[in-house]
Amino acid sequence: QVQLAESGGGLVQAGGSLRLSCAASGGTFSNYAMAWFRQAPGKEREFVAAITWGGAGTHYTNSVKGRFTIFRDNAKKTVYLQMNSLKPAEDTAVYYCAARSSWLPPMEAQNQYQYWGQGTQVTVSS
């Protein structure tokens, strides 16, 4: 059983940056591919980014390419999401981290993720 806990959310102005963290406990962190999803008010939860077990492979949704970076530190059992050039309408959401034991596509498929965190709120003001 893996427990995930997100942190780092908050209020930031448009164009600013935030770094989210997701700390894992239980299980073997390096056995899991990790991802970030987000859910804006009134919208369905959507995929943001994913990273392979060792960190060499990443995958992003088009809207965050060039602005967000996912990376991980297996020694610290933590995955991060560095978010730059934040946009109010597009990036304001609750951000969730998730873990899955395979890297078979599609990485966007939420039902393939076995473990989820509780989420952290990111609000981008205009």
Describe this protein's structure:
The structure is a single chain. With 126 residues, the protein is mainly beta. The chain contains one helix and eleven strands; from the N terminus they run E-E-E-E-E-E-E-E-H-E-E-E. The protein has one helix at residues 88-91; strands at 3-7, 10-13, 18-25, 33-39, 46-51, 58-60, 68-73, 78-83, 93-100, 115-116, 120-125. A hairpin with a 6-residue loop joins strand 5 (46-51) and strand 6. The N and C termini lie far apart (40 Å). The mean pLDDT is 96.
Layout: helices, strands, pairs:
Blueprint: E1 3-7, E2 10-13, E3 18-25, E4 33-39, E5 46-51, E6 58-60, E7 68-73, E8 78-83, H1 88-91, E9 93-100, E10 115-116, E11 120-125
Parallel strand pairs: 2-11
Antiparallel strand pairs: 1-3, 3-8, 4-5, 4-9, 5-6, 7-8, 9-10, 9-11
Describe the structure concisely for a colleague.
By secondary structure, this protein is mainly beta. It contains 1 helix and 11 strands, in the order ββββββββαβββ. The chain is 3% helix and 48% strand.
Key traits:
single chain; 126 residues; mainly beta; 7-stranded mixed beta sheet; 1 helix
Question: Could you tell me the mean pLDDT?
Answer: 96
- What is the SS-derived class? mainly beta
Largest sheet: 7 strands, mixed
**Residues in helix, %:** under 10%
How many β-strand runs? 11
Give the overall shape, derived from the CA principal axes.
globular
